[in-house]
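#struct-queue
[09:14] JT: dropping the first one here, sequence first, then the structure tokens:
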Amino acid sequence: MLIALLIPIGLATLVYLLMLLRAAIKDRLIPSGEGVIVGAITNFFDTLGIGSFAPTMAWFKLRKLVPDRLIPCTMLVGHGLPTLTQAIIFLLLLGVLVDPVLLVGCFLAVLLGGVLGAPLVARTRVWIIQLIVGCALILAATLYTLTNLGLMPGGGTASSLPLTLMIIAIVANFIFGVLLNFGIGNYAPTLIMLSLMGLDPRLSFPIMAGGAAMAVAGAGVRHISMGEIDLRLAIGMALGGIPGVFVAALIVKTMPLELLRWMVIVVVLYAALMMLRAAMQGRRHPLSLEADRAAAI
């Protein structure tokens, strides 16, 4: 079963890498140095369970690296290869302990949601994306706060779920896959949901990482094809993110992360307020879809 899961993820990693290389060679792009640093740091802490989407969104917004409209797509493509790397590591470490039906069901659900949700970002007005991303940042800051205060659900010891709960988990993962395209990470909501259902929290990691890997691979390919991303930044993030994942997964065993989370909370909340303010301004002065795209470019 483990081999059956690793083979498609390995193939997805190869295809994704080839698409990024092809796009970079075609446009003669040089990876962004800042992207390499952002990718290394955010994916390092993502592997430790802090998450990468909210800090990346916050940094993009604070530094104004890309137009708001392109933030979710660029971030999704940039974190693609590091997330695939995480999936392989977590499956090798913990994948054999999880109910295979639950594991595969959540994999396919997140993948389907990611692929079907990819075109929605390109068709959505800028202020709506800003509103969604701003709310996602506030949600992330709330989850970080609950974690630091010890209020996150502790979870159980189960490696499987009853049929009804399993169906609910699979449907929820489809929704999480769609939301990935808008910059809303699936790690925290998946961990909370499965822990409340009684699953061993450690066994959530192969589900989270594997599902996210397949989703970002599928959705990322579509975003690369559509071209509405900052490819230099995304490639830089991918180059920096993979070493960050290996360092966190293979070298760091224990690390005090509470102080870091509090610092991330402050930055994320500030970026969220900026994003929501921009969304409210954009809503008061609505543009057509064509004008939105022109403004983003």
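[09:21] JT: and here's the second one, same format:
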Amino acid sequence: MIGIYKIENLIDGNLYYGSSKNIQKRWKTHRSQLDSGKHGNVYLQRAWIKYGNDSFIFEIVEECSLDILLEREQYYLDLNPEYNIGMKSSGGDNLSKNPNREEIINKITRSVKERYDKMSQEERNELHSYPMEKNSNWKGGKSISFCETCRARISKGATNRCRKHLEYDRIGEKNSFYGKSHSEEFKSKLSKIMMGTYNGNQNKPIIIDEVEYRSAGEASRLLNIPMVTIRWRVLSNNKKFEKYKYK
């Protein structure tokens, strides 16, 4: 059964709300943890020990579909039930507001350290080598390199020069285009491109809202719409732009 449930203390009326895709199974987990004194919710655990399990009832509050389960749980959490620690329906946060938070964190830290101290050197090497040799994306070393000219830090890649010195390499005689010039034909084409009248698809007659334009460039200037936008609309399958088409 999918829905929202509550655990209520019959002595003082305090509540705990929860949600589950399988409420009956979730209740069994709660009872098992509470009876063994290992429940993650310290407030509920203390009350269970103090008042005894006969002082609590488990009830279904609301059945709902899975797609609104968390939304409905949040509704009940907003009522500020006394036993809930985490007040967000995205999951049980039993640590942030736990009165024993520092003790729990220290216990976890000690546990991790003790486990690490017991590891052999070979096991430690295995652990720390995971993101390297065993990672298919590992490139064999550090991801930071230095410019061979000024020693500035750069990302490791195909070049060993920083941007400043890469640009310097293209100045004057070091530039492959040094001493050369564009042809008049190329200059003319470039001028037309900048003006939005280049003789490619842009120069095809185009119809927009039943009005014909000599080119996308002309339509761009008259309608004040970027030429690339016009071309995109012509090629789009969106019915919103069905009146954009080449002649």
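[09:30] RK: nice, looked through the second one.
[09:31] RK: The chain has three domains: 3-77, 119-180, 187-246.
[09:31] JT: good to know. Strands lie at 3-9, 15-20, 56-63, 144-146, 153-155, 206-208, 211-213, 244-246.
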